[in-house]
Amino acid sequence: MTHTHVAAVVGDRTLSEAAVEARVATLRRGPLAPRLPRPGTPDARNLRRWVVQVMTYEAVVEEEAAKLNLPLQPPHSKGELSLFDALRMGGVTAVVLTSLPVAAAVRARVTADVAVPESAVRDYYARNRDLHPGPYEAARPAIEDELHQAAADRHFTLWLERRHAESVTLMPGFEHPADPRHADATHRH
To answer: 156 and 111 in contact (C-beta within 8 Å)?
Structure first.
């Protein structure tokens, strides 16, 4: 499947090379510009591949938001994510949650049924008495909230990765930065 000037296909939507280059140009004009790799280098090509990853994940979330009839610009959207939460979820998921206002609403819908069993809360409390020296009933709400947040993050991240794999086709030259099929693949997992 060859598409001239197409970086990726997400469902029925195409992501143009021009849109990718515009996003990279925006990054190069932003506050992190001095930290970005010089144009024309292997690292710059991998930056472009990373931007394609972010843009295709955003498109997957936008597609789901449309299916759920969610407004793309929900009111009172929170665009900040703690470093701890970002690290727990992984790079692309964290970026999408901060860059795309509707992503939090999609995450809430996708994770609405995530529950933490009482046994998991009790086990966590028993294993972490140094963090929760007080009685179980006093510590329980905070522990349950923490475990629920982590479970919801895992669920959303896995859901997003699965949807991405099902609906995204990356064109040659726009593969994931770790894809061993391209010469610039230096990123390893």
So the answer is: yes
